[in-house]
């Protein structure tokens, strides 16, 4: 058996590679930037740009089970569809696709629409498949949120009083591991993955304050202010629109505040909490 992981150096992929190594499973980790490769027992690194179809056969040949993950840059759905076609042609038996909550053809977010298109391609193959649809990752806070907390002690967000069951990416990786090691019970399943409670950013600020020992507060901002901040960071326009569409859903509540029991059911333990995350990543939010 050979498990291949794409997106192997990202937040979820790198944790999954570590877990597979610890489990003693032969693993191929596909990455674009070979400088990010590191010695990991039982893991062979393969450099490939998945948008180049000429590189898909050497990246996937011999794979039994595939974890499919790419970045969310515009056009990623077509890249994933190409990977799915190549995987089927090369005899891959089961694909675990990292998708997103709310993946559909009518979402206001292009990210959700592209995930849905890739899901459709996978479901139309003869391969076994499992879809993981996680909510927003706690680890996303390690970017701009951590920067503003370190510099100003403030979290900015346009979701207002919206409550979101944020999930720790380590829990997503552990669910992916369980499915990859024993895919049969999970074949044809679509798993919504969330944390154990829906929380607002005021609660996130409180958890980070407790973990860091510094006062951190939440400052709601408008959608237009959020757009300006994203554009100032050089975020591509299509991605800005997609991210703000997701924020609008979170602000409105409803389905985006719903908690799923899937993580606890599959792992046999409760999901990590925002307090667990804050404790483990406290250093990232402390000023110099």
Strand-helix topology:
Layout: E1 3-5, H1 11-22, E2 27-31, E3 43-47, H2 56-60, E4 65-68, H3 76-89, E5 94-98, H4 110-123, E6 128-134, H5 144-152, E7 154-157, H6 169-181, E8 189-193, H7 201-212, E9 217-220, H8 223-232, H9 237-252, H10 262-267, H11 274-280, H12 282-285
Parallel strand pairs: 1-2, 1-4, 2-3, 4-5, 5-6, 6-8, 7-9
Helix pairs in contact: 1-6, 3-4, 7-11, 8-9
Explain this structure.
- With 288 residues, this protein is of the alpha/beta class.
- The chain folds into two domains: 3-134 and 167-193, Rossmann fold; 139-163 and 196-258 and 269-285, UDP-galactose 4-epimerase, domain 1 (Alpha-Beta Complex).
- The protein is 42% helix and 15% strand.
- The protein has helices at 11-22, 56-60, 76-89, 110-123, 144-152, 169-181, 201-212, 223-232, 237-252, 262-267, 274-280, 282-285, and strands at residues 3-5, 27-31, 43-47, 65-68, 94-98, 128-134, 154-157, 189-193, 217-220.
- The chain is globular and about 55 Å long.
